[in-house]
Design goal:
By secondary structure, the protein is mostly beta strands. Helices cover 13% and strands 46% of the residues. It has one domain. The strands form two sheets. Strands 1, 2, 3, 5, 9, 10 and 11 form a seven-stranded mixed beta sheet that branches. A hairpin with a 2-residue loop joins strand 2 and strand 3. The N terminus is likely disordered.
């Protein structure tokens, strides 16, 4: 359910950033930075380990709840594949950056045995990140990032059309370790430690100033056809975080 171009090219260029900038006072981490001294690969590995660690109850956003992961200087918001409309209210620090998952997927060796790290990343993209994908991030009602792409497999060849990648980080991760607990919300996974690879689109916000802020991100994913988008389910999510930044 979670969800290379040319595979060789994606290995050579693991990060793709387009039009990263400052938008109406909202700053985004640039391609030359390691946010808070940590690589993008490591932050994303931590994100996925947090997601799979949640039980079905914990992974279900509660009205007025705060589904969030705080990892020192970085705050991670919920996986956009959750579907539906959700409003959360959280208190964070003005020293913390914010990781926003626009649309992402991973593959792991629990059900893709024998694949190398590079093949797992390719799997994430070509099995789960196909289709017409649109996502937008707003901060305090102002658009700061937009994603509009279409990816299909046509006779085994990836067809990737980019309409918009504005302030978006498209990341092909290196391999990382992932651990599934006995009560993971990711169904049909045998508990244990595995290798994984991930592909997807992210927004890394620098810390927001103290005060009340609203962070909203939406996603719309539609298969481009039963034969060209295997493993892709239609998804529509509207997620809003009311952040009290102290």
């Amino acid at each position: 359910m979670y969800v290379f171009g040319i595979f060789l090219l994606s290995l050579l260029v693991p990060l793709v950033f387009v039009d990263t900038s400052i938008v109406h006072g909202v700053e985004l981490f640039s391609k030359d930075e390691a946010p808070f001294g940590k690589s993008y690969d490591d932050w994303i590995a931590e994100f996925w380990n947090w997601v799979v660690s949640l039980s079905p109850e914990q992974a279900t956003p509660k009205p007025g709840g705060c589904l969030i992961h705080e990892s020192g200087s970085m705050v991670m918001l919920m996986n956009s594949a959750v579907g539906g409309t959700h409003n959360q209210a959280c208190t964070i620090s003005s020293d913390q950056g914010i990781l926003i998952p626009m649309w992402n997927a991973f593959c792991d060796t629990s059900d893709h045995r024998g694949l190398s790290d590079e093949q797992l990343t390719k799997c994430a993209r070509e099995e789960y990140n196909l289709g017409k994908i649109g996502s937008e991030v707003k901060v305090d009602g102002i658009p700061v990032a937009k994603l509009d792409v279409t990816m299909s497999l046509i006779s085994g060849t990836l067809d990737y059309k980019i309409i918009t990648l504005q302030n978006v980080s498209e990341i092909y991760t290196k391999g990382f370790n992932i651990t599934f607990p006995t009560d993971s919300n990711i169904l049909n996974k045998v508990p244990g430690d595995y290798r994984a690879g991930s592909h997807g689109w992210w927004v890394f916000l620098e810390p927001l100033p103290p005060g009340k802020h609203t962070v909203t991100y939406t996603v719309r994913v539609f298969p481009t056809g039963a034969l060209t988008s295997p493993g892709v389910n239609p998804t529509s999510s509207d997620i809003t975080y009311l952040l009290n930044v102290t």
